[in-house]
Amino acid sequence: MTDARLLLDAAHFAAVRHRTQRRKGADASPYINHPLEVAALLAECGVDDAAVLAAALLHDTVEDTETTPDELAARFGARIAGLVAEVTDDKRLPKAERKRLQIVHAPQLSAGARLVKLADKICNVRDVTHHPPDWPHARRREYLAWAAAVVDGCRGSHAELEARFDAALAEGLALLDAGD
Fold first, then answer.
1. pLDDT band at residue 179 using 50, 70 and 90 as cut-offs
2. Is 64 an annotated catalytic residue?
3. Is position 97 annotated as part of the catalytic site?
4. For every residue of the chain, which 3-state class applies, written as one string?
5. What is the pTM of this model?
6. Catalytic residue among 49, 64, 89, 171
7. Which of 55, 56, 112, 131 could bridge across to 25 with cysteines, CB 3.0–4.6 Å?
8. Can you tell me the distance from the alpha carbon of 172 to that of 144, in angstroms, rounded to the nearest whole number?
9. For residue 26, is pLDDT > 80?
10. So where are the chain's domains?
């Protein structure tokens, strides 16, 4: 399969699986916009590994839909399924434990999974800053601090992504400090 075909297949698969989901922000945008944004950010920052880009498109399918890891492996191969598995939370665990484990596991992620994790956190921080869910400022600030802790475990992976995360975090904190 060509890289273009792989990426289009992954985008289509993710779109079908996320078709009924919306983002938590006030605009309730279609969920598929998020994995598309994550993959586009990686490409914009020079990531051209088709498996990493496909994993970015698919990164929430196991966690947030009925997709199984075996299904991803059968359709997209073991490497892509493995990258998705690395960034997938175990929804059977309590939310606080899932969040704690993201911080703990971040330093052990493979190079490709770290890229997906970094781009995901950048996009999420931008969303919490510019299209926030109906959360009080304290919860938004807690999210930003937690995202920073996860990203700290991925440092040394990609300077441009890390700089973009730092800029998004600084902007989010500044807006919260300003009372937005």
1. confident
2. yes
3. no
4. CCHHHHHHHHHHHHHHHCCCCECCCCCCCECCHHHHHHHHHHHHCCCCCHHHHHHHHHCCHHHHCCCCHHHHHHHHCHHHHHHHHHCCCCCCCCHHHHHHHHHHHHHHCCHHHHHHHHHHHHHHHHHHHHCCCCCCHHHHHHHHHHHHHHHHCCCCCCHHHHHHHHHHHHHHHHHHHCCC
5. 0.96
6. 64
7. 131
8. 8
9. no
10. 3-177
52-84: pLDDT as tens digits:
999 999 999 999 999 999 999 999 999 999 999
Compute the Cα dihedral for 144, 111, 80, 69 and give only its sign.
negative
CA 50 to chain centre: 16
Residues 63, 71, 89, 166: which is the catalytic one? 63
Residue 123 pLDDT > 70: yes
Question: Is there a contact between 9 and 77 (Cβ–Cβ < 8 Å)?
Answer: no
CA R_g for the chain: 16
End-to-end CA gap in the chain: 47
**3.40.630.10, 3.40.1280.10, 3.40.630.30, 1.10.3210.10: CATH of 3-177:** 1.10.3210.10
Neighbour count for residue 57 (Cβ, 10 Å): 29
Mean pLDDT of 154-173: 97
Whether 145 shows a pLDDT value over 80: the answer reads yes
- Dihedral, 55, 61, 66, 67 alpha carbons, nearest 10: -10
